[in-house]
Amino acid sequence: MHLHILGICGSFMGGLAAIAKAAGHTVTGCDANAYPPMSTQLEGLGIALTQGYDASQLDTVAGSADVFVVGNAISRGNPLLEAILDGGLQYTSGPQWLFENVLRDKWVLAVAGTHGKTTATALLAWILDHAGMNPGFLIGGVAIDFGISARITDSSFFVIEADEYDTAFSDKRSKFVHYRPRTVILNNLEYDHADIFPDLAAIETQFHHLVRTVPHRGRLIVNGGDENLGRVLARGCWSEVERFGAAAASDTGPDWTIAVDGTIKLGGAPQGQLAPFSLIGRHNQMNALAAIAAARHVGVPVASSLVALAAFRGIKRRLELRGTVDGVAVYDDFAHHPTAIAATLDGMRRTVGTGRILAVVEPRSNTMKLGTMRSMLPASLAAADRVFCYTANLGWNAAEALAPLGTRAELHNDLTTLIEAIAHASRAGDRVVIMSNGGFGGIHGKLLTRLGAGR
Q: Which residue, 317, 305, 248, 238, is CA-closest to 272?
């Protein structure tokens, strides 16, 4: 079967393309904006990529397609989509295709939540792989240990990042309602995706739709400290529930707890210690704890999970060290929501102590572009010594929003000027943390080159 994928460079659709290719299908695709690591992965797989969405693709590379898989970034009015609809051609959404062709007969372990999905999914897949279970997986990023974001195997288990974003132009339910998992991590929940959801209650409804799909013998691994998730479960829950959270002062806290030193308990009984562990920050300890609890549901002992996590090397674009020049370390991080920004910088601050942190932010996500979270930005950046904000294409006043940071913050709408300002401000021992959910114009490599030319 020949699949032509619209929006193929998105993390989900790119992973789906890799799975379909490995399953023996012919795969082609198109996108308007390709950047690493997904563009590199597709190139390595030999998947032909067409730039843009011109309807003429139907006369060339897409002409022999049996089905068009339409990504959720594609809206009505897209020339290629309109031609597909006018021609009465076969189309489906990515989540629907994945369920019907891959997930239907698998024990699906799904990781949902506003933050930490990619990390927790990668950790869970790595634990199962280390235990010899050879799981299939689809992760919204590239785990360094796997070198890929997705794979299909003959294993009974499949680990998937369960995104709450909408499915497609014709299906406005969240993607995760298609997956029908038996094991679910609910990591956290807060307002996001302002371009799709009018308020928090709307997102909570989608999460409850997910809860409704979990069988009676399934299990929910739930952040016990998240009030929003508490409201979701209060609407009704028909499956086993285990809660996780920070170490409690008494045994009346969550089922699973983890202390700052990595000590893990289940029902108050010691299970071992998460140490060593390469990922920094309290939030990553929680991601690991959730993964350990989910792995136990499919029979992986905690001790085995801890051995696996001690060997985990990280994920591209999650506080990934891109290089160090003259003592200045440059990191790439996907943080694109104030809560994620705060967690990233808090983790870095706990690691470097009094060392200087230079935070570089591109408010690129749809929610951030709309300015919905702008009032939360100053507090989220509090742990940084200097803040550089890229303001190109913003529809709100970033200077006004960041005014509480005073002289610590500066704004630039030109990438070259921004890079020059960062290079001028940096000194040996600094950590430059670049945060964006896009390619950010290749700023990471350009900054390292500029630093190499001297400050």
A: 305
